[in-house]
Amino acid sequence: MEHLDTFLTVLYVMVDDLCKQHSLSMPRHPGPAPKLGLSELLTLALFGQWARFPSEQAFYRFAQRHLKAAFPTLPDHSQFVRGEHACAQLIEQIACLLASLRLGQSEELYQILDATGVPVRCIKRRGGGWLAGVADKGWCSRISSYMGFHVLMAITPTGFLTGFGFSQASVHDTRLAETFLGLRAHPSARLSSPGQAFPTYVADRGFASEPLQLHWLHDAHAAVLTQSHNRKPVTEPSPRWRRWMHGVRQVIESVSGKLHLAFRLATDRLHTVPGFRARLAAKVGPHNFCCWLNLLLGRPPLAFADLLDF
After folding, report:
1. Residue 9: in which H helix or E strand, if any?
2. If you ran DSSP here, which 8-state letter would residue 28 be given?
3. Is the Cβ–Cβ distance between 193 and 164 less than 8 Å?
4. Which of 166, 159, 261, 180 has the alpha carbon at shortest distance from 224?
5. In this structure, what are the phi and psi dihedrals at residue 23, rounded to the nearest 5 degrees?
6. How do residues 208-252 score in pLDDT, each as one tens digit?
7. pTM of the model
8. 140 strand-pairing partners
9. Which parts of the sequence belong to the Transposase IS4-like domain (predicted)?
10. How far is Cα 283 from Cα 10, in angstroms, rounded to an integer?
11. pLDDT confidence of 101, banded at 50, 70, 90?
């Protein structure tokens, strides 16, 4: 179990080194200079996602009481939130860069594609509410019907999140994967969250479409392996293949559970798209950092429960 000061110090050093290596800088805007440096802002944004803090306000009260020695120029909460939203793209870059530091990445044979639902408001509430026209109704096996966003993730067999993206909840897995794999094959400077391209992916039946799989292989250079929708004996997978797919699903459920439970993805209710974008990336970042730290300490990568001593 790591002490809080040690954990924060290692996280800050890692973030600061990545910012310097990749020449990341704070976005320019009119007005007075920000009180926090980029590395300090990113460190606090990532650390504040722990479920130990029931909300962003609870985290900031904790920071003002206990972290003033480490961050003496801590600004007002509203200024910190504005800075966090302005640096959404930089948080995405740091989250993906933390995944690139994983050990044994040259031995990986595949990555796992999967999607999860993230609610932003109760589906039974009347009226448009916040994010009207952006978030909509969808269905997820974890929470059934919901109002919010559909998040696609690329996961390594050890649990690192190498890339992610989100859309309206009603968007189908294959449409989201089309954009995701396209951005991996042809990167955009404005969207860094998909991460780096990878040749082989494993996914569930929601991504099964022979024309699309051939298209992804030809145009995005990505082979997406799935179980077929066809249940005929000729195409029915072998018991060994089904057992292996069940093992893959366990990794997916573990990673999804960490994001929803350990980092509050299931309970945060964001009111703006920039806020959701920044907060989603800020949850992926500590997830990858904790996986890396666990491997460094000789622990299972997804053993988060007793990693940090509050």
Report:
1. helix 4-21
2. P
3. yes
4. 180
5. 55, 45
6. 888 999 999 999 999 998 877 665 554 566 777 777 777 777 888
7. 0.91
8. 144
9. 111-283
10. 17
11. confident
Closest CA to 264 of 46, 20, 18, 30: 46
Q: How far is CA 209 from CA 185, 194, 234, in A?
A: 19, 21, 17
Contact between residue 56 and residue 48 where contact means Cβ atoms under 8 Å apart: yes
Distance separating alpha carbons of residues 19 and 23, to the nearest angstrom:
6
Q: Which pLDDT belongs to residue 140?
A: 86
In angstroms, the CA 280 to CA 116 distance is 12
Tokens of 86: 């302005």
CA 79 to chain centre: 24
Contacts of 111 (CB under 8 A, 6+ apart): 154, 155, 156, 162, 198, 200, 201, 202
Q: Could you tell me the two tokens for 79?
A: 């200024």
Instruction: Compare 24 and 131 and report the one with higher pLDDT.
Output: 24
Residue type, 63: A
d(CA 106, CA 93): 21
CB atoms within 10 A of CB 62: 16
CATH (residue range 105-270)? 3.30.420
How do beta strands 136-140 and 2-3 pair? Answer: unpaired
